[in-house]
Amino acid sequence: MLAVYYDEFQKTPWLQQVPEPQPGDCDVVLEVKASGLCRSDWHGWMGHDPDISLPHVPGHEFAGVVVKKGKAVRNFSIGQRVTAPFIQACGRCAYCRQGDQQVCNDQAQAGFSYWGSFASRMLLKRADNNLVVIPDPMSYEDAALLGCRFGTAYRAIVHQSPVKKKSYVVIFGAGGLGLSGLLICQALGAHTCVVDPSLQARELAKAIGADLVVNAFDEHLIENVVSWSEGGAQVTLDGVGSSAVLNPSLACLRRRGRHLQVGLLTSEETKWDRMSNLRIVAHELEIVGCHGIQAHEYQGMMEFINETQINLSQVITARKSLADVPEYFFSTDSPTRAGVSMITEFPY
Ligand SMILES: [Zn+2]
Ligand SMILES: [Zn+2]
After folding, report:
1. Bridge-partner residues for 342, per DSSP?
2. Could you give the number of structural domains in the chain?
3. pLDDT band for position 272 (50/70/90)?
4. Do residues 160 and 251 share a domain?
5. What global pTM score does this model have?
6. Which of 260, 289, 318 is the last residue in one of the domains?
7. Of 148, 157, 202, 223, which sits most exposed with the smallest number of CB within 10 A?
8. Which of 289, 316, 334 is the last residue of a domain?
9. Ligand 2 centroid vs 237 CA: distance in angstroms?
10. Co-location of 194 and 71 in the same domain
11. Is the pLDDT of residue 58 over 70?
12. How far, in Å, is the centroid of ligand 2 from the Cα of 105?
């Protein structure tokens, strides 16, 4: 079968014929039907993720059909449409037992700790603990989004923040994470502002319905946002992962506000400036990290999507074949695009 494959960090991947995966006792093999191209795949390829060993096949935001299963898998069968969170939790550690599988002590992660979904077939470990059946009306593309970007934004905003009707929320970055966050905040009735350096990304955020969009390089960014939000936002969300975001994000918060760190902070130079240091204490700011979503929270998330009539496909801006991925996605000058690009064709 074909897979997007690399044997060296920062060297352009290629489409490689590799053997089809075989399931261990607790695993399934999926025929991949949709796979999002997420910034974490790019970070992994850049060499920022210590869990990746070479050679590697990335991809962690996926949906597909079960085509093989291990003999110990009880809850799922061949032919079912399924997806899973990007963390495949162990189900046994103290965190899993208390329902916090998103911070499992012994995580497996397809696309990081083993080969992932940039391939026509993929292994999914620990199936019984982590697979989720896709309800009939939901497309593979929408289901794939739940595994990383939409799911993480949902957990951050709905479970890890006080966002409610008429709250002011500032979202930094109009990629898949930020736009998912925008949809969720709108569904909750919050006032929304999206900050992004790209005009195309800001236009997309505006089209989806952001109340205010601001250029990340606007020298009056902070004062404009503070004025719009009547003294600062209750919640800000970093959907990028950068100290260039962290400091303005903290400055846009009102007292006792909460900064949600969702984008991965990987660079060595990430630091809070002096004003941030003062504000964290004097304004009692909270900084909360968010790491995906548990499989057992999918049902609530799917009900939320249904009840609020969120249209997830609005954030999908490009559909690609697996064959396009090496050139389209992997270049060291850090391509960031508005919305989500999704692999929807998987040549075998
Ligand atoms: Zn991701
Ligand atoms: Zn665990």
Report:
1. 36, 319
2. 2
3. confident
4. yes
5. 0.95
6. 289
7. 223
8. 289
9. 27
10. no
11. yes
12. 5
